[in-house]
Write a structure and sequence with these properties.
single chain, alpha+beta, FAD/NAD(P)-binding domain, D-Amino Acid Oxidase, Chain A, domain 2, Helicase, Ruva Protein, domain 3, 10-stranded mixed beta sheet, 8-stranded mixed beta sheet
Length: 501
């Protein structure tokens, strides 16, 4: 590792850290990002997987946040149409909850607050005659439909890291910050990799984007006091077989006034979430509790003809959201906005800490973070990411269906489901993945489903994937479609490959 100081040391490989690293590298700064685990291993791969304005935040008068998120929704849709795509949400009206006029007013505001251009507007539904009503109990005769977007959250993080690396940023996964101290107007930081090897790096500034660990980095690693506090809120999701016809999702109002998303997931599955529970344990060890799973099942069963049971739950996961602590009593009311804390020493060696934020606004958060650091880097270039595609996202007219159809003509001997999977995850980077491939045999060993050796090797070489979980759970979702025996066989293959390397 070079002994020359980098401009920016970014601590944290979630969506905020990767987004800031990408933006900074594109402005001409030298950047090093360190992440103690895998990219997106924490909160950024355990979200509800939506790029959305946050309809329910209107009730808390978060108009600036909702407007920013709605604008960003379309910016991101243009930048990465392979991993982000439109989704229509059906909201059945429950007389026991919010009145219909209030919902309609909120949806009208939602339609117009962000200058919607790409997505269709909301509308009222007669659920007795709509396909979306067939899965619902007959008592729910009226509903509403509106637009938001789906996102592969973990891949969003990886794509930002890839773009940062393409702009000469150093991305160090499984490398933890041990300590950071100011010396002579710059930071001296000690890093430790997974083998226990220590290295010293120098940096003119640090961005602390450690999410749930943001206060730990400030206090324990940098020896500074934190002026703000992070509030940890646990959100859990469950995955069950998809139980309705159609591409739409549902938004259910629960009897505690929270809302539950029920979204199509991986073609034949659905993702149900989320909960909002105060959390004080280790963020690395968070899991969905049986009480949370029961809560989500009850919320869905209140509306749906098909009554779900615990046996329907294929998979569950939980994440800790590091929200800015605004002292709200109800965890659901805690702001999803973000706040920065800047600490410097006589105008030098700043450390900028990020509190809060949400996936949808990460790009804007990154711009604002660089604006706060501009006084320390007066030669830094200006904002550039608003019109820039993420890796693989340079699809003509953002028409994914046309792109996928063209891919089928380019590779006629490959299975259609495999090509669609590659197109979704890699966009135009698929040609790099399939360089030299013509037949199914060229893909190498088949691990099950749409998973072949060629993709596994590509992810190890190109995307910092080092463990079976990196590939099966974060870079892809193959783990949801493989049997326990197939997953073990793949793990054995990775172990043998690593041992012989």
């Amino acid at each position: 590792m070079s002994t020359d100081p980098v401009d920016l040391l970014v601590v944290g490989g979630g969506v905020n850290g990767a987004g800031i690293a990408r933006d900074a590298a594109g402005r001409g700064l030298s950047v090093l990002l360190c992440e103690k685990d895998d990219l997106a291993q924490g909160t950024s791969s355990r979200s509800g997987k939506l790029v959305h304005g946050g309809l329910r935040y209107l009730e808390y008068y978060e108009f600036r946040l909702v407007r920013e998120a709605l604008i960003e929704r379309e910016v991101l849709l243009r930048a990465a149409p392979h991993i982000i795509w439109p989704l229509r949400f059906v909201l059945p009206h429950s007389r026991e909850q919010r009145p219909a006029w209030l919902i309609r007013l909120g949806l009208m505001l939602y339609d117009h607050l962000g200058g919607r251009k790409l997505l269709p507007k909301s509308r009222r539904l007669d659920l007795s005659s709509e396909l979306a009503g067939r899965a619902l109990k007959s008592e729910f005769g009226t509903g509403f439909e509106y637009s938001d977007c789906w996102v592969d959250d973990a891949r969003l993080v990886v794509l930002n890291a890839l773009d940062a690396a393409a702009r000469r940023a150093q991305i160090l996964t499984r490398t933890a910050l041990v300590s950071a101290r100011r010396e002579g107007g710059i930071w001296r930081a000690e890093l430790r990799d997974q083998a226990g090897v220590l290295s010293i790096v120098s940096a003119r500034a640090i961005v602390n984007a450690a999410g749930p660990w943001v206060e730990d980095v400030l206090r324990r690693n940098a020896g500074l006091n934190a002026g703000h506090r992070v509030r940890l809120v646990k959100g859990s999701h469950i995955v069950v077989p998809k139980f309705w016809d159609g591409p739409h999702a549902y938004l259910f109002q629960n009897d505690d006034r929270r809302v539950i998303f029920v979204n199509p997931y991986q073609d034949d599955l659905c993702l149900i979430g989320t909960t909002d529970i105060p959390y004080s344990g280790e963020a690395d060890r968070v899991v969905a509790s049986e009480d949370e799973i029961s809560y989500l099942l009850r919320a869905v069963n209140r509306y749906c003809v098909r009554q779900l049971t615990r046996a329907d739950v294929i998979y569950s996961f939980s994440g800790v959201r590091p929200l800015f602590d605004d002292n709200a009593e109800n965890p659901s009311a805690v702001t999803r906005d973000y706040v920065f804390e800047l600490n410097d020493a006589d105008g030098a060696a700043p450390i900028l800490s990020v509190f809060g934020g949400k996936i949808t606004t990460f790009r804007k958060l990154s711009e604002h973070a660089l604006e706060r650091l501009k006084p320390y880097f007066p030669g830094m270039a200006g904002p550039w990411t608003a019109g820039a595609a993420l890796p693989g996202g340079d699809i003509a007219l953002a028409d994914f269906d046309a792109f996928a159809a063209h891919l089928g003509r380019d590779y006629p001997d490959l299975p259609r489901e495999v090509l669609i999977h590659y197109a979704r995850l890699y966009g135009t980077r698929v040609h790099r993945l399939l360089d030299g491939v013509r037949t199914r045999g060229d893909l190498g060993r088949h691990f099950g489903g749409a998973f072949y050796q060629r993709e596994a090797e590509f992810l190890q070489i190109e995307e910092w994937a080092a463990t079976p979980e990196d590939i099966l759970e974060r870079r892809t979702k193959h783990g949801l479609h493989l049997t326990p025996g197939q997953k073990q066989a793949f793990s054995d293959w990775m172990f043998t490959r690593a041992k012989s390397a």
